[in-house]
Write a structure and sequence with these properties.
single chain, alpha+beta, two-stranded parallel ribbon, 13 strands
Amino acid sequence: MRIISKHNDYYDGAMAHGQDLTVVYSRTKQMFEPKEFKYPFEMPYYAIIGELNNKNHELRFLAIAILFCGRLYRAIQVLDVKHPQYYSNHDYHGETFYDLASLQEYIEQKGFDTSDSIRRSYKGRKRRHPFFKQEVHDFFADNKTDRYQQFCIDNQIIALAVTKRIFNKFYMTTCGEYRTIINPILKEHQFFRVFDSFTAYQEIDMWVSGVLPRTTTPMVEIEDKHKISEHGFDEWSFRKLPTKRIS
């Protein structure tokens, strides 16, 4: 498979192992603001996980969904506001997790307790812990489902990402402001945690060549003799005319 794109992604290097030039992925990135594109699945309106703060870290959590080759992959993106590159580096995207176990391990490594979903306030009243395990578990419940495969086929979608709309790094929306990106840069979402570069490339190759319908009209082959006549030539145009031998 040959990839035509203005940007690079983490699986592009797999083309070095050989390409089928008859299979082409024209990877043009398109971005749609909320309400401009209707994705077929539900996204949480409010934040699944509240902000977590301690002396060294301030974690904010964003819900992400990626349709890739007909399957849905949900993820949680974690941004550490106290990370030294958060405000200074435009390419800082935090950490992205595609399952509950790895997300919970990361949060605990930052010094937060996730063992109890209820904590007490200073007045002794119970209130919900910012990390409510059951709600996060439910968010990941339909990971890898192929329920939206027909939607991808009908809309010629190879990869699609639904992410939280961020106005700037000083203010992030907490409600249902999601934007849709067709042909996103998957390395920004650390999709290599789902598929390594070679496997991701193979998945796209099989999806484009074996599942998605071809959009181009097959080329009609014309015999050489007809091509010659169409251009005003005859059978002797490229040959030396025979000469009569004088006896």
